[in-house]
Recover the amino acids of this structure.
């Protein structure tokens, strides 16, 4: 007969072993192929031809989230080459553009803050259109999340909006300029009021 204390210790040991052997919820979800949770970020994109002016309709922009490895697609671009991707988690995104001529990978990653918006333009150019000088020290990029070759590059230009704009260098410069202008007005106002003070008869 097993003493009561020994039996209790054995039960506790078995329970602890089972608990430690069980995967964490996030690891279990990842192993089961569950998708990463969506966020409140978004990308507003405009897709242009290599001339940087002509819009491309019917293109799809995909955002590859570097941390989760999940890809978020847009609806096809409209006649103005515009589309939007919503429900993005914060972090870094690798953008790509799919057109009838192939897939073009972004020239740089884009950072999305929680519930933030990135406004980008993507100018697509085939690799063969690049000059030999441009290729110095560079290699063709693969499509993010795959081992497939891309057909070209999408030059990305970003534009900060909302709160992000006011914390950007341009926004800070505007704030600084406005503060300087207000200071000048206050100084000018102080000078005119002292010169207008009545003189003694």
């Amino acid at each position: 007969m097993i003493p009561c204390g020994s039996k209790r210790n054995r039960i506790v040991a078995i329970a602890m072993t089972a608990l430690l052997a069980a995967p964490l919820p996030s690891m279990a979800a990842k192993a089961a192929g569950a998708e990463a949770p969506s966020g409140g970020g978004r990308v507003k994109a405009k897709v242009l031809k290599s001339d940087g002016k002509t819009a491309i309709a019917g293109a799809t922009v995909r955002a590859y989230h570097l941390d989760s490895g999940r890809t978020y697609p847009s609806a096809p671009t409209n006649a103005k080459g515009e589309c939007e991707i919503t429900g993005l988690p914060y972090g870094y995104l690798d953008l790509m553009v799919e057109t009838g001529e192939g897939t073009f990978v972004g020239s740089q990653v884009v950072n999305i803050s929680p519930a933030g918006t990135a406004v980008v333009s993507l100018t697509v150019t085939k690799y063969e259109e690049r000059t030999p000088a441009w290729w110095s020290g560079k290699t063709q990029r693969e499509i993010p999340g795959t081992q497939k070759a891309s057909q070209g590059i999408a030059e990305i230009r970003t534009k900060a909006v909302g709160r992000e704009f006011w914390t950007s260098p341009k926004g800070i410069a505007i704030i600084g300029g406005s503060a300087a202008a207000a200071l000048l007005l206050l100084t000018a106002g102080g000078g005119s009021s002292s010169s207008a003070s009545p003189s003694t008869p």
In short: The first helix runs from residue 4 to 21. Residues 42 and 86 are 4 Å apart (CA to CA).
